[in-house]
């Protein structure tokens, strides 16, 4: 039995999939769930982005995108669609990468996930070497006896989720790419609940950092 699981972050550039091209054309930052490849070769996509008409227009004009649906809040859009063009992520999945999150920005993608053992990691990177620009950004072991980083830092699951959602949405970017209302909507909570979780998480992290 293989006992080691490795967390992996892979950077992809030069992919010609619809989401990569749409973010390159519009400058929009998109966070996508792992794409689902159907038996007929089509891909089911679900992804979110700061509210803008440019991204929807770019995707709507792409002949590879079908059944595009958009739901929106005041600050954020959520899309669902079918794509006739599989992306590089599927090749990495076929090689053994367990994808958890994909973020597109300016045409490039950051793929976060895990692999079971170094042998599988070598297979993933061998596959990556045969595709467009793919490089291993970082990797580290995940062990059962170790608690998650958030837990070791004293963060509750809702606090860790709030931090992650804020970071993914660009809430901490300068200039800010998403409002507190948008992040709260993504989490499915009120603005006040999100801000409370964020403040408590920040207080915990600052306490760990400065020994308070």
Describe this structure in words.
- The protein is globular, with a radius of gyration of 18 Å.
- A hairpin with a 2-residue loop joins strand 7 and strand 8 (108-116).
- It has eight helices and nine strands.
- The chain has helices spanning 18-26, 53-60, 88-95, 118-129, 149-152, 157-169, 180-187, 191-210, and strands spanning 5-13, 29-32, 36-37, 43-50, 65-72, 76-83, 98-105, 108-116, 133-142.
- The chain has 212 residues and is an alpha+beta fold.
- Strands 1, 2, 3, 4, 5, 6, 7, 8 and 9 form a nine-stranded antiparallel sheet that branches.
- It folds into two domains: 5-142, no CATH class; 149-210, Arc Repressor Mutant, subunit A (Orthogonal Bundle).
Key terms:
single chain, 212 residues, alpha+beta, Arc Repressor Mutant, subunit A, 2 domains, 39% helix, 31% strand
Oligomer: single chain
By secondary-structure content and strand pairing, the structural class works out as: alpha+beta
- Relative helix content: 25-40%
Number of helices: 8
The percentage of residues in β strands lies in 25-35%
Count of domains: 2
Quick rundown:
39% of the residues lie in helices and 31% in strands. With 212 residues, it is α+β, with helices and mostly antiparallel strands. Helix 1 (18-26) packs across helix 2 and helix 6 packs across helix 8.
Write the layout of secondary structure elements.
Blueprint lengths: L4 E9 L4 H9 L2 E4 L3 E2 L5 E8 L2 H8 L4 E8 L3 E8 L4 H8 L2 E8 L2 E9 L1 H12 L3 E10 L6 H4 L4 H13 L10 H8 L3 H20 L2
Antiparallel strand pairs: 1-8, 1-9, 2-4, 2-7, 3-4, 4-6, 5-6, 7-8
Helix pairs in contact: 1-2, 3-4, 6-7, 6-8, 7-8
């Amino acid at each position: 039995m293989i006992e080691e699981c490795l967390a992996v972050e892979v950077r992809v550039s030069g992919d010609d999939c619809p989401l990569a091209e749409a973010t390159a054309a519009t400058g929009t930052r998109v966070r996508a769930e792992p794409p689902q490849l159907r038996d007929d070769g089509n891909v089911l996509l679900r992804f979110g982005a700061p509210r803008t008409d440019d991204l929807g227009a770019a995707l709507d004009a792409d002949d590879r995108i079908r059944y595009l649906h958009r739901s929106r809040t005041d600050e954020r859009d959520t899309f669902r669609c079918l794509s006739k063009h599989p992306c590089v992520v599927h090749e990495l999945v076929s090689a053994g990468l367990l994808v958890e999150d994909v973020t597109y920005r300016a045409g490039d993608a950051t793929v976060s996930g895990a692999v079971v053992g170094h042998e599988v990691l070598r297979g993933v990177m061998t596959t990556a070497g045969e595709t467009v620009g793919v490089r291993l950004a970082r990797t580290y072991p995940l062990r059962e006896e170790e608690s998650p980083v958030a837990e070791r830092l004293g963060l509750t699951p809702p606090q860790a989720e709030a931090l992650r959602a804020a970071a993914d949405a660009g809430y901490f970017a300068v200039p800010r790419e998403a409002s507190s209302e948008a992040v709260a909507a993504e989490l499915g909570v009120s603005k006040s609940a999100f801000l409370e979780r964020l403040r408590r998480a920040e207080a915990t992290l600052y306490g760990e950092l400065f020994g308070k």
